[in-house]
Design brief:
single chain; about 325 residues; alpha/beta; six-stranded mixed sheet; 10 helices; about 40% helix; globular
Length: about 325
């Protein structure tokens, strides 16, 4: 859990920032106060996803979570699209994954500046990193790895509906991200990660947002987000803006240091020349890809800090 003194310091910083914004707004009639991120509501969305069960593609919890996302987003967004995604192994045609990417769009009239906010929503089908070998065939609950990024973006969707930012926003929940390198024969081991985003980029060739921000594993109670190495190399200008926003709001879970290079949903965009950065906790937590990836390892405060950075960046 984030320490109480640290959270008080961040709250005080945010309060001073809000007061300063109000003083400026008193002098500039067109100014509006940025919205506030409701971290408790975001955490409830994290818990709700885990309550469905592991969101393994093809399972009932997966279908229930999809319905929850669409029912939540449709009253908020101008448009919600469910994009079917299917992948068949070139080594074994019996290995087939079927999923759904969810795209919720805001400010569709703004075609000149569109910003993508993304997270993956599927759960890994096997806990192959579990220290208990008898649990390695069980699915991963996916509280941090999956539900946390989605939870932040569901809350951002509510803010966009109540107080639209100037830019056009596309929130994308990618499916089939976490099914890569499964245990088994060579065909299973060769399954790529980030299938949903790869298919999204392939099937929407004209979609070129100004930039994108991917959230992955952003809920840990001791969250640390360094500069992911691929983002630093290929989208440094965007990453700089993110870390400037983090400094402005006192979000100390952001660590201004070079982190690992991660295979994630931002890579298909980077390969296409679209600057998308990955905000991800590294080194990976001990419960990564285990049955212990549960809500008790996460905290509302961590989600709140990430949400505050997005608000600072977008408003």
């Amino acid at each position: 859990m984030l320490s109480t003194p640290r959270h008080r310091q961040n709250t005080k910083h945010q309060t001073l920032k809000t007061v300063a914004a109000l003083l400026v707004c008193a002098l500039v009639s067109s100014c509006t106060t940025p919205p506030e991120f409701n971290e408790a509501r975001a955490f409830a969305d994290l818990e709700r996803q885990v309550e469905f069960g592991a969101r393994v593609p093809g399972s009932e919890p997966h279908a229930e979570a999809l319905s929850f996302f669409v029912e939540t987003l449709e009253p908020l967004a101008e448009r919600v699209i469910e994009q079917p995604v299917t992948w068949t192994s070139p080594l074994d045609s019996s290995i087939v994954f079927e999923g759904v990417n969810v795209i919720a769009s805001f400010n569709l009239s703004n075609t000149s500046e569109r910003i993508m906010l993304a997270a993956h929503w599927d759960s890994r089908q096997v806990a192959d990193q579990d220290p208990d070998s008898t649990k390695r065939t069980l699915p991963v609950p996916g509280a941090n790895d999956g539900a946390s990024g989605v939870a932040v973006l569901l809350e951002m969707a509510r803010l966009f509906a109540d107080q639209p930012p100037e830019a056009g926003i596309d929130i994308v929940f990618f499916d089939l991200e976490d099914q890569g390198n499964l245990p088994g024969d060579s065909a299973m081991a060769s399954i790529p990660y980030a299938l949903g985003s790869e298919i999204f980029v392939r099937d929407t060739p004209n979609y070129r947002p100004s930039y994108g921000i991917l959230l992955d594993m952003v809920g840990d109670a001791n969250l640390r987000i360094p500069r992911e190495a691929n983002s630093e190399r290929y989208a440094k200008a965007v990453l700089d803006r993110v870390f400037e926003a983090a400094e402005a709001v006192g979000a100390d879970v952001f660590k201004d240091e070079l982190g690992q290079a991660i295979v994630d949903d931002h890579l298909p965009f980077l390969r296409k020349g679209i600057p998308v950065v990955d905000l991800i906790h590294t080194p990976f937590v001990p419960y990564w890809h285990t049955t212990e990836d549960t809500p008790d390892k996460c905290s509302p405060e961590s989600l709140g800090q990430v949400g505050e950075v997005l608000i600072e960046l977008l408003y």
